[in-house]
Each structure stands twice: as C-alpha cells, then as structure tokens.
Design goal:
The chain folds into 2 domains: 12-137 and 314-327, Rossmann fold, CATH 3.40.50; 141-311, 3-Layer(aba) Sandwich (Rossmann fold), CATH 3.40.50.1370. The longest helix has 21 residues, at 307-327. A 5-stranded parallel β-sheet has the order 7-6-5-8-9. It has a 4-stranded parallel β-sheet with strand order 2-1-3-4, with helices on both faces. The radius of gyration is 19 Å and the shape is globular. It has helices at 17-35, 62-73, 94-102, 115-124, 139-152, 180-192, 208-215, 232-236, 256-262, 270-276, 297-300, 307-327, and strands at residues 51-56, 77-82, 107-111, 129-131, 171-175, 195-199, 226-229, 241-244, 283-286. The chain has 333 residues and is α/β, with parallel strands linked by helices. It binds phosphoric acid mono(formamide)ester and norvaline. Norvaline binds at residues 133, 179-181, 245-246, 249-250, 287.
C-alpha cells in the first residue's frame, strides 16, 4: 500500500485495542458535549464543503439516520445513493464505480450483501470506506454497543491504565444466530477483554474460519476463547449482558421457515435468564430491527433493556468514526 492509501474501517479487526478504546471514548465525550449544548470545535465544520457518499443496497433506519445526522453535525453533505439510484451492479462494475465516486467525494459509507463487495470498493477507492453492514461485519454497531456497555456499567478507566475502558471481566451472552453483528461484537470482546459465551442451534454455529479470526484478535499475550453451547441457559449463566439479533438477516428471507424451526427455544425471556442464572441486574441488548420471536416484549421493553440507548449511540459512534477515518485520515487521536 502506498503512503497515500486511505485507511478503511471494514471491521473491528481493523482497530487495535487502544484505537477501539479511543474511538469509544471520543464518541462518549462528543455525546456529552453536544448534549450539554456545544458541538466540539473538532467536529463543527470538519466536513464543510465535503460530500460523503452513503451507498446502501439494503434497507436501513439507524445506520442511515445516524450517518446522515453525524455528517450534518460536521457541516458536510451526506449523499444517499440507494441501489436503484446508481449504475453499480446493473450497468457498471464495482471497480469503475469505486474509482469514479471516490474521485468526487471525501468518503464512502457502504451497506452491501457479500463482504467482498465493501472490501472491493475499499481496494479501489482513493478515499476512506466505512462498512455500514456486510454479511460478515457491522463495525459501527459494535462501537455503539461497547459505548452502551461502558455507560450502563459505569466503567471507568482503572488508574494507571488509561488505555482501558474498564470492561474487563464483564460477560456477554449471545443467544441466537451466529451472524455479522456477533462477529464484530466478538472481535471487540477479544480486544477489550470481555468474556463471551454463545448459544446457537446445531447447524448455525460460528464458522470455523470466523472463529479463528475472532480468537486471533486478542492482543498479544492474552488468549480469548468463546464458550460455545447449544443450550441458551448455559450461555447466560453469570452473564452481565444478554444480546441477540434477528434470526433472519436481510437476504435470508427464503430460509425463514427453516430457521424459525431451528431456533425454537432460543427466545430471550425473563424465565430463560432466571433458569440459566444470569447475573442480578443483567441487561439486554439488540442492534434492532427487532422481531418478537427472538426476544419477549417483557424483556425488550423492560428496564433491563438498553436497546434504545444502544440505537441512539449509533449517532455518537459514527460521529467519532467519521472524525477519525475521514477528517483525521485514519489517525485515531
Ligand atoms: N442496527 C442497524 O444497523 O439498523 P439499521 O438496519 O436500521 O440501520
Ligand atoms: N443481522 C442483521 C442486522 C441488521 C442491522 C442483518 O444483517 O440483517
């Protein structure tokens, strides 16, 4: 790569533990500043006169709204390009599209099907590319998730180790489909020293190649293991946070009947958490959009649920990501 090659954010794996921590800290401090009435000077006008292309070939509520709002806060221009708007995939190749769009904008934020599509955009782009969800990763979601955990558990840096977010020792239990949201969350867990257990039905486990990407994400000198089981109650034992996502990701609609059957018994409920022995005061998280089959209303709308705070945190984390990758050209300071 040339010294002028842009730095991309395609997965949490692209960040060192220190960078991941810093991005979350920046998101948190931007959140407090804006909420107390002042947009930080490092943000205001930081994208003045610049355009960020938002290229989505799938639906989105949170990712689109948060990204466009963050760019507006930076006084930049968010240009939304749906798959019906541009020539990509119909009349034009990924290579040509990437070279052309990147010659006119400051960054591309892309939501794709296969991860290779966003990786291909990045490979040929002269500007930073941020993954806004692929079949493998959702880094912007993971940033918001750890910001939310940081807030909910009121973790502070341990003295003498200003690098830390203080999440070490917390335990996340994932109950449901092994998907894009889990993969980046797991890479983040490996980097931040968070414990992770995962319950998936037979045939829906984390693929072996992904498991090795996750376990090898732990910083040197620290090992990371995922406790895997088919029994949701086993996974939630001693969990601080129970997390799930839809069982049917966008693009898997034809597998719906089969998956609904395979995931019977995996709905996150209060009874399940109790039977399994989740920690007193356990919290629930979900990236949304949510369907009733994966989590009961009782849990989803309970005081234990962090889901709406988690959704709002998408704004503060994409703001920090745009600042780092677009304004500061990949320097996370
Ligand atoms: N969580 C998330 O990415 O939601 P959207 O699909 O609505 O953007
Ligand atoms: N796993 C879901 C996440 C949506 C934000 C999907 O890929 O559709």
């Amino acid at each position: 790569t040339s010294p002028f090659a842009p730095r991309h954010l395609l997965s949490i794996a692209d960040l060192t533990p220190q960078e991941l921590t810093k991005l979350i800290r920046n998101a948190s401090s931007h959140k407090s500043a804006v909420k107390s009435g002042s947009v930080p000077s490092s943000i205001q006008n930081s994208l003045l006169g610049q355009t960020v292309a938002i290229m989505f070939n799938k639906r989105s509520t949170r990712t689109r709204v948060s990204t466009e709002s963050a760019i507006a806060m930076m006084n930049g221009h968010p240009m939304f390009l749906g798959s019906q708007d541009i020539q990509l995939g119909v009349n034009e190749s990924l290579y040509d599209t990437s070279v052309v769009i990147s010659s006119m904008v400051s960054a591309m934020v892309a939501r794709v099907n296969a991860h290779s599509e966003v990786a291909g955009l990045a490979k040929h782009s002269s500007v930073p590319v941020i993954n806004a969800l692929s079949d493998l990763y959702h880094p912007l979601q993971t940033l918001a998730d750890y910001l939310t955990i940081h807030e909910a558990f009121n973790t502070t840096q341990t003295s003498g180790n200003s690098q830390s977010l203080g999440l070490e020792g917390l335990k996340i239990a994932w109950v449901g489909d092994a998907n894009n949201i889990l993969f980046d969350l797991a890479i983040g867990a490996a980097k931040l020293g968070v414990e992770l257990s995962v319950a998936t039905p037979k045939g829906y486990e984390i693929p072996a190649d992904m498991k090795s990407i996750i376990t090898s994400s732990a910083p040197e000198g620290r090992s990371f293991n995922i406790a895997e089981t088919r029994v949701p109650e086993e996974a939630v034992k001693n969990a601080d946070i129970i997390v799930t996502d839809t069982w049917i990701s966008m693009g898997q609609e034809s597998e719906k009947q089969q998956k609904l059957k395979a995931f019977e018994g995996y709905q996150v409920t209060k009874e399940m958490a109790q039977r399994g022995g989740a920690k007193e005061g356990w919290k629930f998280m979900h990236c949304l959009p949510r369907h009733p089959e994966e989590v009961s209303d009782e849990v989803f709308y309970s005081p234990a649920s962090l889901v709406f705070q988690e959704a709002e945190n998408r704004l503060w984390s994409v703001l920090a990501a745009l600042e780092a990758f677009v304004v500061n050209k990949g320097k996370i300071v």
